[in-house]
Specification:
- The chain is of the alpha+beta class and about 140 residues long.
- It is built from two helices and eight strands, in the order H-H-E-E-E-E-E-E-E-E.
- It has a four-stranded antiparallel sheet, with helices on one face. Strands 2-7-4-5 form a four-stranded antiparallel sheet.
- Strand 4 (about 80-85) and strand 5 form a beta hairpin.
């Protein structure tokens, strides 16, 4: 059974979001073998690599654009991904994380208006502390 660590995830989300502000060196790291590349100009969030439980909080979502959440993982086990927009769960899915070889990938595509304007949160609940994951949130125009 996975214990939810709400206070720890809230703190972690704030730290991860703060760390995403400078994507220059991180973009180079993805090009050198990261699971998901930098999302480019359509990107709202990019987590290049994290291990174990984590998450992110962000702002700036547009109600006028579709939203795509993509998570990739490896290292064994699985991750449970949940995205909340203004108090409503708008995406929830599991991704199997292969122990070796290519990464497992899961995506949730949401129509314009599903993600409310402004902030959203994403929680990634990993089955093991060593499961490695990456995520992107994009709003393609």
């Amino acid at each position: 059974m996975r214990a939810k660590k709400t206070a720890a995830l809230t703190t972690l989300a704030a730290l991860v979001a703060a760390g995403l502000a400078g994507a220059g060196p991180a973009a180079a790291a993805a090009a050198d073998g990261g699971m998901l590349p930098h999302p480019g100009p359509d990107g709202l969030v990019w987590v290049d690599e994290f291990r174990g439980d984590g998450g992110v909080a962000s702002g700036g979502a547009s109600i006028d654009l579709p939203t795509v959440l993509t998570v990739a993982c490896d290292g064994g086990g699985d991750v449970r991904v949940t995205m909340d927009s203004k108090g409503t769960i708008v995406a929830a899915f599991d991704v199997e994380c292969p122990a070796s070889g290519s990464a497992g990938v899961g995506t949730a595509s949401m129509a314009a208006g599903v993600v409310r304007p402004g902030d959203f949160t994403i929680v990634v609940d990993a089955s093991t502390r060593t499961t490695r994951w990456s995520l992107t949130v994009t709003q393609p125009e």
